[in-house]
Amino acid sequence: MESKAVVLYATWVMVVCSALSPAAAQVSIVRQGMTEAVVVTADDAAMVATYAAQELVRHIAKATGQQLQVVTETAIPAGYVSRIFIGITEAARKQGLVREKMKPDEFVLRTVGRDLYVLGMEDKARDVVLGDPADSDWTHKVLHDGVYGYRGPSSISPNGTLFGVYEMLERYVRVRWLWPGELGTYVPRTDDVRIDDVLDEFHVPKIAWRRFAWFHLVDALRRHEAYDPRTERLAFSRQGLRNFWEATGTYLGRHRMGHSSHPPTFREEFARKPWKGEGTTLAQERPNFYAMDSAGRRWGQPGYAYNWPDMCVSNPDLHRFILEQVWDGRNTLRLGQVNTIQYCHCTRCMSWDSPQPQPDEIPQFERGAYGPRAISYRYARFWKTVYELAAKRNPNVRATALMYQTTLPAPGAIKLDEHIYGEYCPWTGPATIFPMRKPVDQWSRQQWLGHQYDLAPQPFASWLHDAVPQHPPGG
Ligand SMILES: [Zn+2]
User: Fold this and answer.
1) For the residues of 260-298, what is the DSSP string, one character each?
2) Can you give the pTM of this predicted structure?
3) 292: CA distance to ligand 1 center in Å?
4) Pairing between strand 185-186 and 193-195?
5) pLDDT tens readout for residues 123-182
6) pLDDT, tens digit, for every residue of 139-152?
7) Cβ distance 85 to 117 under 8 Å?
8) How far is the CA of 374 from the centre of ligand 1 (A)?
9) Hey, what domains does the chain have and what are their CATH numbers?
């Protein structure tokens, strides 16, 4: 038997349930240019299974020129060497392959005799939607709604079955999706597609939230109030934009974007009500909640330096107000500062900043970007303080914060609870240039390594979620 190497992708963990058997059966899909397999779905197939079967057939046709037949399991024609069962079928149940508890993007790859089973969780209420979405339908789900939403109501579609098919196509057909669209789809031509391994695998994504924020594109088609005609001009026409949008959605799905669970929401909490905005009076009532400028002035006083200040984050009255008046007591506590590099100059806030980094702790390439003062300790202490108070009332609470340049270097001496999430948002300087130079990349990673963070390089609109186990920085 030919033994093929098992390809393990960095973002996926594969749990092999049993050792490879020497008496390996072979799944034969196309042999010497002739079709030997039939694709089988349930009689009442979930859309994810239907779509996964289409993706399989499409790529096999590209590779071999052979069009696989797709049938339902009560109408399987005789004469095929192998059957490829896609999704949850009665046959899979009989084989005991349908796990009681599967997360939406986990999947089973299993060979039984000369047949192959590919299946993930199914939930018709959250199934993928096939067909042509309406432009105005923001909540419409096309393939993977975890991918499509950008800070909208994030929902989770069960895509495990589809991811299983992609795993197979990468491993056994050597398909590569290099960029969106046909031109970026590499399918090597072959007369033989087969699986020589005995497969008994259960795949679990290692990264819980995998998302690429392409909201400029999505907004252009779906949110008329956010529509920017420049985006359409880039695509030459509205139809061109639409084509690119669809191709990108498919491409992101093929790269297994999506959510295993609901991520907490991140936002500039202090840029909205009740803190700021039309009709809010808090700045007059509680000026000490807001950042003091370098001349000692608070909001509302003549000559105050900020027109959109961040908060006086060391103020215990502010902490109490957040907990008692703003937070709803539910599982998300949002503490994101406004998008700015200004900060409160009051004595207590300034004392919270120590220790300040030594000049040699900031590499040359970051010196212009991070200064004039590192406020990472101050903000980490703020998140920690408010989070700990909130956790006494709701132990399940997760706090979210935004991390701008001023949160570098990371506050090594403060240990943050694993329920505190930061979204790292470099918005000027070398950390926003693509491709990021290696020393910049390494230094940026080292700063918050071990904390739970998002990476939000905003100029490129990518928003990669990362769920990293909690360790002390450098630990
Ligand atoms: Zn202050």
Assistant:
1) SSPPPP---GGGSTTTSSTT--HHHH-GGGBPP-TTS--
2) 0.71
3) 6
4) unpaired
5) 877 676 565 554 444 344 433 333 433 222 335 678 899 999 999 999 999 999 998 899
6) 444 333 334 332 22
7) yes
8) 15
9) 12-123+158-206 (3.30.379.10), 269-465 (no CATH)
